[in-house]
Write a structure and sequence with these properties.
single chain; 303 residues; alpha/beta; Glucose Oxidase, domain 1; 7-stranded mixed beta sheet; 13 strands; globular
Length: 303
């Protein structure tokens, strides 16, 4: 297993690059986010190509790859915030040369479709990344979500406390954090971007999926052996799920719980991360501890 590298933390005045590796975005959609980043004391860097369009994408695959490459290779850029997700990262990940990034790591932040980069970078280069809210979401996020992003970028240790759930399988867990969006993760199966889950704490979230799709993806991960030897499982937002006219009969959380019922590692639901307003930052590739807090709450600590 690669020893995980923690990129340098940010200080006021540092440059944060903004790129759109997937769905297109307009300048109007980002103006408020740019103000928030600047008010936090950072300089925003982007090119006009950020607002390119090709059907649903932010420009062609080649253009999006070139834009990300530019930010990765610019040593003056200390962090890259992905403007939004959608779909498209898997189309460009193999076009990227990470060699300079490996020598000079910087924080990559985002979630959803950015799951591709979280896991590819972790598996192939052993560099920590940040699963966190993105500029497209800033205006709708809670203060806690925004603060957790910038606090962690500055290197502050931030524990996250969340409420207990009746479906939890309680117990202490410790391990390296991997995972992200379930649908995107499932699309990486069999590739060099899929994470090694043995002995790890797996985090999952998803949005706008049919319940039978959730079941199919979980069964796919299970049959591939990716759920057998976890140190723990943490489930975030399973948001806006869909069903068929003939109901599947279970919620997304129940589907996940049933799928891992035969295993004995701790399972926790309701972690505040994913396609929700209160999308707290998580450092992927970092060793974390999960334990019961005072009362019925659970706490996740960076260890």
């Amino acid at each position: 297993m690669l020893k995980m590298i923690c990129p340098p933390f940010l200080k006021k005045g540092d440059k944060i690059g903004i790129v759109a590796p997937a769905r297109k975005i307009s300048k109007n959609e980002l103006e408020e986010a740019f103000k928030i980043i600047r008010n936090r004391g950072y300089n925003v860097v982007y090119t006009d190509s950020l607002f390119s369009e090709e059907n649903q994408f932010a420009g062609s695959d080649l253009l999006r790859a070139q834009e990300l490459q530019l930010m990765l290779d610019d040593d003056s850029i200390k962090a890259i915030m992905f403007a939004r997700g959608g779909y498209g990262c898997v189309r460009i990940v193999d076009k990227i040369d990470f060699s300079r990034f490996y020598k000079h790591p910087k924080w990559l932040t985002g979630y959803s479709d950015i799951t591709v980069f979280h896991n590819h970078v972790s598996m192939n280069f052993g560099i920590q990344t940040m699963h966190a809210t993105m500029p497209i979401n800033f205006t709708g996020n809670t203060n806690q979500a925004i603060n957790s992003l910038f606090d962690k970028l500055q290197g502050k240790i931030v524990d996250t406390v969340f409420s207990s759930n009746k479906m939890n399988r309680v117990g202490d867990a410790e391990g390296q954090l991997v995972g992200g969006n379930l649908s995107v993760l499932y699309s990486l199966l069999g590739s060099n971007s899929f994470p090694d889950t043995d002995g790890k704490i797996l985090f999952l979230e998803d949005l706008d999926e049919y319940l039978y799709h959730i079941d199919r993806m979980m069964m796919g991960l299970k049959r591939a052996g990716m759920l057998s030897n976890l140190a723990g499982l943490v489930v975030g937002g399973m948001t806006q799920m869909n069903d068929n006219p003939i109901p599947f009969g279970k919620t997304a959380e129940e589907i996940i719980r049933d799928c891992v019922d035969e295993f004995d590692y701790p399972v926790y639901f309701g972690f505040p991360a994913g396609h929700i307003d209160d999308n707290r930052a998580l450092i992927m590739g970092r060793n974390i501890k999960i334990c019961m807090n005072d009362g019925d709450s659970i706490v996740i600590k960076d260890s």
